[in-house]
Amino acid sequence: MIIGVPKEIKNNENRVALTPAGVTELRKHGHTVYVQAEAGKGSGFTDDQYTQAGASILPTIEEVYGIAEMIIKVKEPIASEYPLIKENQLLFTYFHFASSEPLTHAMIERKAVCLAYETVEKTDRSLPLLVPMSEVAGRMAIQEGAKYLEKPMGGFGILLGGVAGVKPANVLVLGGGIVGTQSAKMAAGLGANVTIMDISLPRLRYLEDIMPANVDTVMSNEYNIRELIQGANLIIGGVLIPGAKAPSLITRDMLKLMKPGTVMVDVAIDQGGCFETSKATTHEDPIYEVDGVVHYCVANMPGAVPYTSTLALTNATLPYALQLANQGWKQACSANEELRKGLNVVHGKVVFKGVAEAWHLPYTDVKELF
Ligand SMILES: NC(=O)c1ccc[n+]([C@@H]2O[C@H](COP(=O)([O-])OP(=O)(O)OC[C@H]3O[C@@H](n4cnc5c(N)ncnc54)[C@H](O)[C@@H]3O)[C@@H](O)[C@H]2O)c1
Known about the structure:
- The chain has helices spanning 20-28, 47-53, 61-67, 101-110, 131-148, 178-189, 201-210, 222-229, 306-335, 337-340, 353-358, and strands spanning 2-5, 32-36, 56-58, 70-72, 90-93, 113-116, 170-174, 193-198, 215-219, 234-237, 263-266, 287-290, 293-296, 343-346, 349-350.
- It is of the alpha/beta class.
- It contains eleven helices and 15 strands.
- Strand 2, helix 2 and strand 3 (56-58) form a beta-alpha-beta unit.
- The relative contact order is 0.14.
- The strands form two sheets. The protein has an eight-stranded mixed beta sheet, sandwiched between helices. Strands 9-8-7-10-11-13-12 form a seven-stranded mixed beta sheet, sandwiched between helices.
- 33% of the residues lie in helices and 16% in strands.
- It is globular and about 65 Å long.
- The chain folds into two domains: 2-112 and 306-368, Rossmann fold, CATH 3.40.50.720; 131-304, Rossmann fold.
- Nicotinamide-adenine-dinucleotide (NAD) binds at residues 133-134, 137, 174-180, 197-200, 203, 220, 238-241, 247, 249, 267-271, 299-302.
- Belongs to the AlaDH/PNT family.
- Keywords: NAD, Nucleotide-binding, Oxidoreductase.
- GO terms for molecular function: alanine dehydrogenase activity; nucleotide binding.
- It comes from Dyadobacter soli.
């Protein structure tokens, strides 16, 4: 198959959908790979590295879209890319159709085959192409939190791990899923006193078993949250209710209970945030203060560490990309239910229920495609 990797052109997107290692794998299976010039630059990969791995470099995005049967990307195509997409072309990338009506209509019109990373789903209902980004964001939340706890950055002025004779900081993690687990591990590793809260007792039991001694688990409810935020220096918001807006677990009135200079990192901001006072921020201007509490609410945290994020993402996407290239989308999706769940818009038909419902479009059962 002929595979094309365009350079991401969305603002501040430095990830790339395929590494030189991925090119080598695809070439080993007999596929041809075209990479747009400088596509890997933001993630630290040179055109030479891609060439040595067996890819051909094309100077323009038009040439990449023009020649490829399958386009592998990171972010959804933006408006300037719409006219480049060909009928029957397979696009394997994050789409998030339910949050963009223009994108949905554009892909219907282009009659492409749109396989969305975010809806590829395993039989245990986990989302294997979202997990790596939650891992990155969860770990990064502690790094960012530690930074903004420094006095010159507006924080309380406390070191997460303390030193001999001085107590460490208290870190409260709301949600014990992927983000919360990674945050707790990082904070614990730095020597902080960590508490994870979740509403799932089986999850708390699991975390209690695997976490080091400086991590406690506590049932998440309003009473316990009110009590614990009073002693917290850093609070991480990592809750998720699938398909719904995140619940406001820390309300505005609760901020008065906290110490001035407390830092709150709302990782769940992409689902509306789990603090009432959260509003999305960017890497250029990541924080703001409400009632003396520092809020960090960057909606695309992994974008700040493109090297790590690219490798984490491509480790997860490559096996699927290989299947698609080896078998073609129709056979691969017919044989593999995980991939089939990724199909959202195919040849002008919406085959993912959530997308059809979001934009009041006719829905076609994916089974009708096979
Ligand atoms: N900002 C970013 O850059 C970024 C990056 C990656 C992920 N995220 C977001 O982070 C959030 C968490 O993702 P995840 O992969 O960890 O999800 P997950 O499903 O693995 O974990 C969510 C956890 O929240 C728990 N939960 C639900 N309601 C709760 C409540 N009231 N109190 C405490 N816990 C509760 C669930 O039981 C679950 O364990 C998602 O909204 C995700 O989209 C943001």
